[in-house]
Amino acid sequence: MRTRIKVCCIASPDEARIAVGEGADALGLVARMPSGPGPISDDAIAEVTAAAPPAVATFLLTCETTADAISAHIRRTHPSTVQIVAPLDPTEAARLAKIEPHVRRVQVVHVAGPDALDLIDAYSAHVHAFLLDSGRPHAPVAELGGTGRVHDWTISAQFVRASALPVFLAGGLSPANVGEAIRRVRPFGVDLCSAVRTDGRLDRLKLQAFVGAVRRADDALRIG
To answer: What is the dihedral of CA 142, 79, 20, 40, to 10 degrees?
Structure first.
């Protein structure tokens, strides 16, 4: 299976065109966050979602933690997918599924230890996919993504094997390590931001290197 590529921190329609042209399957659009790189305004997010090609998913990254607030954020920005970056009460996840049934829902799980596996059953009935990241949602200033840190891929691999839903892998991925990540974790997709940027801007050459590393890893798995 081909590993999907999600390029996060897209800042403009021009960056979106670069990402899509180099093979991105999905665009991550970071809204207001307590910390981390890449936030843009809701109006800028809506501009990118309106211009994205039909086959490319647009992910709104929201830190809202109630179904009503997430729904309002979706309706302001019009993404195809909402990525819920903070822990969400499962009852709110169930309510969101009812009020926004046509928007794909992805729950982020920040992998701090084996207890991340306990969240599979809590959310699986209410979301379409998971994304494993390396944030610290309970830190004094919450970190909800964009940390550049690699978490324990052994736990991530266990999560992928245990989940019936697709799983994206994020957290410190780069052209240098994404091949090993794919080999060890076997995620549905990979997600990154900082490793393909230079001076805050999307770098086409770095993105080409990342996409090439992903495709070589896919080829190696098929051959092996």
So the answer is: -40
- Cβ atoms of 151 and 142 closer than 8 Å: no
Below-70 pLDDT ranges, the chain: none
Do the beta carbons of residue 55 and residue 2 sit within 8 Å? no
Task: With beta carbons less than 8 A apart as the criterion, state whether 71 and 49 touch.
Answer: no
Is 211 in a helix, a strand, or coil? Answer: helix
pLDDT of 142-184, one tens digit each? 777 877 888 999 999 999 999 999 999 999 999 999 999 999 9
- Single pTM value for the model: 0.94
The partner residues of 4 in beta bridges, in order of sequence, read 189
Six-digit token pair at 178?
A: 């994404």
- Give the separation between CA 111 and CA 155, rounded to whole angstroms: 8
Computed over every residue of the chain, the mean pLDDT equals 94
Task: List Cα–Cα distances, 63 to 20, 84, 204, in angstroms.
Answer: 25, 6, 28
- pLDDT of res. 149: 87
Q: What's domain 4-223's superfamily in CATH?
A: Aldolase class I (3.20.20.70)
CB 193 within 8 A of CB 5: no
Return the domain boundaries, the chain: 4-223
Q: 121, 130 in Cβ contact below 8 A?
A: no
Structure tokens at 154: 């052994």
